[in-house]
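Here is the promised in-class demo. Please do not try to memorize the tokens; focus on the logic of going from shape to residues.
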């Protein structure tokens, strides 16, 4: 009985990992509400956001909290990054280069890093909501604050719960908490243009 139970749990874990892997491989787009926390040596900044993202690199992030930043939008059509601030005249800034601290908050960046990483790991963890599969990958480059990342995915729903990005000293630097998540939804390309 003990052997059967151990094998069943191992099979459940393998089945969950296979479903999660299939979800990541087949992800074309998503919409989520996420709380993004940036942690520095001096302070922590937390933003509640709505994100639309496509696997081709297009994304749109709208800040909904804190109130003083609500309505700020950052978007990319895959070539140009624009920022829109509804409270300032001359509202649009265009032509930003992509930066890692901006793009690493997206599940699509994690998938790209995970698929290219030479060092990955898979483990199981329990969070308050459920049992999770934890995928870990290295982030390419020599950025001192963006060295590795872990994605926590619910084994039952195959939806991401949390993405944690660590610096070279294994300290948490960015935490993305997925409050809601919708896979492979139709997103009109006009959403990525101002």
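The designed amino acids, position by position:
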């Amino acid at each position: 009985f003990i052997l059967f139970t151990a094998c069943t749990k191992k099979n459940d874990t393998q089945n969950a990992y296979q479903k999660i892997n299939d979800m990541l491989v087949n992800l074309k787009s998503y919409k989520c509400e996420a709380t993004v926390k940036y942690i520095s040596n001096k302070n922590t900044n937390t933003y509640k956001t709505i994100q639309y993202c496509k696997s081709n690199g297009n994304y749109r992030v709208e800040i909904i909290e804190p109130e003083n930043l609500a309505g700020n939008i950052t978007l990319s059509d895959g070539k140009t990054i624009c920022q829109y601030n509804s409270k300032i005249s001359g509202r649009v800034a265009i032509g930003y280069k992509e930066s890692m601290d901006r793009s690493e908050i997206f599940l699509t960046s994690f998938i790209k890093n995970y698929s290219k990483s030479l060092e990955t790991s898979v483990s199981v963890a329990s969070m308050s909501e459920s049992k999770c599969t934890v995928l870990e990958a290295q982030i390419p480059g020599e950025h001192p604050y963006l060295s590795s990342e872990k994605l926590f995915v619910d084994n039952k729903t195959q939806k991401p719960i949390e993405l944690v990005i660590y610096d070279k000293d294994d300290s948490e630097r960015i935490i993305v908490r997925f409050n809601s998540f919708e896979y492979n939804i139709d997103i009109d390309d006009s959403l990525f243009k101002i």
